[in-house]
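Handout, section 4.2: multi-component inputs.
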Amino acid sequence: MAVEIKDLSYTYNIKSPFEKRALDNISLTVDDGDFFGIIGHTGSGKSTLIMHLNALTRVQKKKKQNPTAVLNVCGIDLACKKPDLKGVREKVGMVFQYPEYQLFADTVKGDVAFGPKNLKLEQEEIDRRVREAITLVGLNYNEVAERSPFDLSGGQKRRVAIAGVIAMRPELLILDEPTAGLDPQGKKEILALLHSIKRTCPTVIMVSHNMDEVAECCNKVAVMGEGKIMGVFTPQELFSKRDLIKSLGLELPTVTELALELDESGLDVPPNVLNENDLIEEIERAIDKKAKQV
Amino acid sequence: MKDVSFGQLYPVDSIIHRMDPRAKLLITIAYIVMLFFVDSFIVYGIIAVLLLIVILISRVPPLKVLSSVKAIIFLLVFTFTLTVVFNQGQGEAAELERFGWYAHWGIFTVCGSGLILGGKLVCRLLLLVLGPTMLTFTTTPVALTDAIESLLTPLKWIKVPVHAFAMIMSIALSLIPGLMEETQKIMNAQKARGAAFDHGNIFKRAAALLPVLIPLFVSSFKRSDDLADAMDSRCYRGAKGRTKMKVLKFRLKDYLAMLLTIALFFFILVLFYNWWGWPWVGLVTLA
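Output:
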């Protein structure tokens, strides 16, 4: 198991007028090899949850909170008093929202090398990883390595930032809204990138608002609302539960929405299709069928 | 950083919260001036009780107010120690006669007068922090800048750009929470990449802050650029023709509060300096 969580709660500004319960008795497991999606409305506790996974937010122990909480990530116990912070930061890679805001070095190469350097690797190994990571995110190493990250375009900056995390070769990669604020083309490129990342990094957790992404990438999806896990589903199951989706203020993937409308207007298309190519096939099949009937 | 409560609004509703910010500001200034006139434990005690009454009326938990002292605890200890250790009082003989004891090691001396002086300094510093903390706990930064702008209006006659100053201040104040959040975010991101901010000597720590400071500067410049555009596109032209949504107005309670402050100020001064030689006053201050 990559992640095991039991009875985890977290309250912001405890015992003050601003008190807010962000996590409410969360229990969740993520298996090795999962591409795990976490969806939920703004303020549902997604970010607080993933911040626990590499101990940036520690399991809250004051005021007798979390007496029985279990939090195991990549075999490291994070619920104990002195968790192995260095170990967990090495094994868990975290790509925050708008990761391009964390770029700081004067060259792309230097920025991507920041993580591996903190791992105290040999210079040769660092160079190798930097080259590999920059290539993996789809940038031309020779072209960008010596440039300033601040001269790149928005999409390119984001790739550099992702490369900076991948270069640490995490066992578990966590992405918080990796496509937020990008144009459709940029989104597509980042999604394609996620697929190639999945080949090098065993387990990926992705937080997202965008149901299209979730439908396309994830094999399991946890739905969060008001600090609770409302359930863990496969995308197929999830997007056939329309009431749940609606009650949480979320949307269906565009493809599923279209399939549903086609189905309602009389074309025989299964309403739980999740990706573009499948839908096209289904539509062709339905039209053929109709033609035969006539 | 989250634990520093100095300069943070405590949003409950109370008569103190609703007071005119100018009145609160003037009262706070009077309070600070008063503290510099006063030099006796009894009077400090009286001021502390008055402050406590204000705190209770404002419905901010007293412990919350007290926690603002955390920020200056080092300063307090430092001041107290230095004052006590380097104060030689009126010399060994006089001190022995007055207090019955006197201790010194090399250049360091501990004596009764020194302890009293140190204690008074600590009281003064504590009250100096607690009073203005009450101002910021009960007044929004925006109201405060409005108050400053309004009180500085006379300076406009000698061509001081009061409005611009007030605008700069209110923008700076309103950017602080965002900046704190941004700092936290960037620190988290760099920590996730294995950065350590709490290891090594002071130079290593300073160097470790670079990956936080550079992105912070970049995003601050971007933010101010965006803000300037937003203001431009709303036709901001400085003070010219600009009206206020919330016009400040002194009400009866504000006048009363200010009168009360002046009266108390005067009372405390009398108590301390005893201009008219009232016999009972002398007893109070000497005790």
